[in-house]
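Sample pair:
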Amino acid sequence: MSTVDQIKAPVAKEMDEFENKFRESMKSSVPLLDKITHYIVKRKGKQMRPLFVFLSAKLCGEVTESSNRAAALIELLHTATLVHDDVVDDSNERRGFFSVNALWKNKIAVLVGDYLLSRGLLLSVDNKEYRLLQIVSNAVREMSEGELLQIEKARRLDISEEIYFEIIQSKTASLIASCCACGAASVNASEETIKKMYEFGKTVGTAFQIKDDLFDYGTGNGIGKPTGIDIKEKKMTLPLIYALNKSSWSDKRKITNIVKNHNTNPDKVAEVIDYVIKSGGIEYANKKMNEYKDAALKILNTFDKNESRNSLEQLVIYTTERKK
């Protein structure tokens, strides 16, 4: 499996330049805001979203200033949603760092999220990037709907497989889909190509989320130990949904009761994990993830072979074989 650095190779220069441009897009004359945005930039992750944007742009043409704006727009709007998410979830940590609300309290965190949102909107409008704004705003709408659907369903734990896919395709896949669609749109690709890249991103994003769900059961997390975090948070993921669909009425009642009322008891959580593994939930989720992975690769195969297509193929494989 290729490393992220090898995958980045065709757009390494663009990715380096983007970092400065992204920092610029967050600048403010208010010292407190500047301090917080500097903190946000400093603790960035693997930069997967800009990578999808630039590789998609290069697959369909040559990277332009519009591609940089597309990547910045997605990062601004996505960062805004993360800052707001941490407030909603009352979370004090993100990627091993303190969250904005943990350091500066909820009121400031909400305002910072609003500020980032407005910077994204202005970046598009000032440069007349209406198509990019449409694609990304649609993703933010879907992410909010997916989150609310999950909250609504978590109360009763009555999630079917169909609803599960609806949630993850809204919450996770829509953002990766918008990265790929924006990359194509930024180099003036045809509407048909933009749609195709959107579909590609959606299938990769779905595979990515199923992989995340599998980490909860200790599969592929490099440590082999189940974490049970999703169960503690009453999140219905694919392995558990599959196991419950196959279970008898009494088993279903017992497992649902643990997830609802005993999700902080380590022994009880271990019991659920064991039940899911024995029911074939892990194999089933793996099978589904690979179906989405193959669908994504099939879409890529309709494009001419070049180094960007090769990197996107490697990125799809990395998504489903990563250890964390």
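The first strand starts at residue 93 and ends at 94.
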